[in-house]
Design brief:
The chain is mainly alpha-helical. Helices cover 53% and strands 0% of the residues. It has helices at residues 2-10, 30-40, 43-53, 55-62, 70-80, 88-91.
Length: 102
């Protein structure tokens, strides 16, 4: 538990404002942590995430995140040499309809 608390204190406080990060299980909740850091994290958070999970696990998990923005997916494609079509954020459309064009 002490190692989890040390890791939890290393992440930026704004990432996990909605939960108690000191009590989170880093193995069971890896998708949640990866999604938060990819979407809202700073560079030190990214470095800690890579050290914690490894680039391959981050890439495989990010492929399943539908809410991931396309810029982040493109970044992951560039550093992991993967195709952007492998990521669900490229193949899943939002259900919100577009505004009318007049």
């Amino acid at each position: 538990m002490n190692a989890n608390k040390k890791i939890a204190d290393s992440f930026s406080k704004h990432l996990f404002w909605d939960i108690n990060i000191a009590e989170i299980d880093f193995d069971k909740n890896s998708k949640y942590i990866i999604a938060k850091v990819l979407q809202y994290g700073l560079y030190p958070d990214w470095r800690l995430l890579v050290k914690l999970y490894g680039l391959k696990h981050i890439s495989e998990t990010a492929k399943t995140i539908k809410e991931l923005d396309k810029k982040t997916a493109s970044f992951l494609c560039a550093i992991t040499n993967t195709n952007k079509t492998d990521y669900q954020c490229y193949s899943t459309n939002q259900s919100v309809t577009q505004h009318w064009n007049f």
